Amino acid sequence: MAAKRSGAQSKRSPGKTASARPAQEPRNEPALSLERIVATAVELLDAQGVDGLTMRRLADRLGSGAMSLYWHVDNKEKVFDLALDSVLAYRGSPETAASEDWRGEVVHMLEDWRAGMLRHPWSALLLPRRALGPNILARLERLNRILSGAGVADADLNAAIWSLWNYVMGATVTRANFDLSEEDRAAAQQRLAGLNEHYPAIERSRLLLDNDWDGAFRKGLDFLLDGLAPR
Predict the structure, then answer these.
(1) Contacting residues for 127 by C-beta, under 8 A, at least 6 apart
(2) How high is the mean pLDDT of the chain?
């Protein structure tokens, strides 16, 4: 038997023995962690949208098996919650006990909120449908304190906060989806000119040519804050 084994080995070409086979290169992926899962989920959502996120695709991007993810997250819904909350973190100026510029604080927070959602358009679609995470709750808590410190009555605080929420959400969704080219805007305005007898006001104001989204957001926010300012 020993001779047969020796003969069989002698037929193998040099360098092809089991001991001489090159070892498979190890994968140099970073260790799997919740933070890495969330960051990669955000990248996947940015690239493929809400429908593009599956546990399999997420695992492929991470270079791991899908089952490995469940050591860190319960299911895909939890991934959505964590990814959403991660992009809503607010790192504004340190909160003071009594700011003299309450309007500036509110404007900064809401402009940051809108900008964050525009960088990640899927977030505006998920936010109304997901559980509110610690980052968005921290924003709402801070907004409540700022408005209360500015003199907004306790009975009006909830309505004030939801009005600002609705404004930010509506402005963000509109900006993300109503993105006409300059050619499309010019064509629409030209069509309005032909319908001037029916729509004279918006034709005269050249509404469809107005592409100053940031300026319109800021001015509209000023209108809202004027209504909240103590009298």
Answers:
(1) 84, 88, 117, 136, 169
(2) 85
pLDDT category, 4, cuts 50, 70, 90? Answer: very low
Torsion sign over Cα 137, 176, 225, 212: positive
Please, are residues 139 and 90 in contact by the beta-carbon 8 Å criterion?
yes
Q: Is the dihedral of CA 47, 51, 56, 58 positive or negative?
A: positive
SS3 88: coil
Q: What are the C-alpha distances in Å from 113 to residues 7, 10, 87, 120, 230?
A: 74, 72, 9, 11, 24
Q: What is the mean pLDDT of residues 183-195?
A: 88
Indicate if the pLDDT at residue 14 is higher than 90.
Answer: no
Instruction: Give the Cα separation of 87 and 202 in Å (integer).
Output: 37
pLDDT classification of 225: cutoffs 50, 70, 90: very high
Cα torsion angle, 79, 83, 85, 91, sign: positive
d(C-alpha 101, C-alpha 36), whole Å: 38
Q: Which domains does the chain have, with CATH numbers?
A: 34-87 (1.10.10.60), 102-228 (1.10.357.10)
pLDDT value at residue 95: 57
DSSP tag of 15? T
- Between CA 79 and CA 41 the distance in angstroms is 7
The model's pTM is 0.78
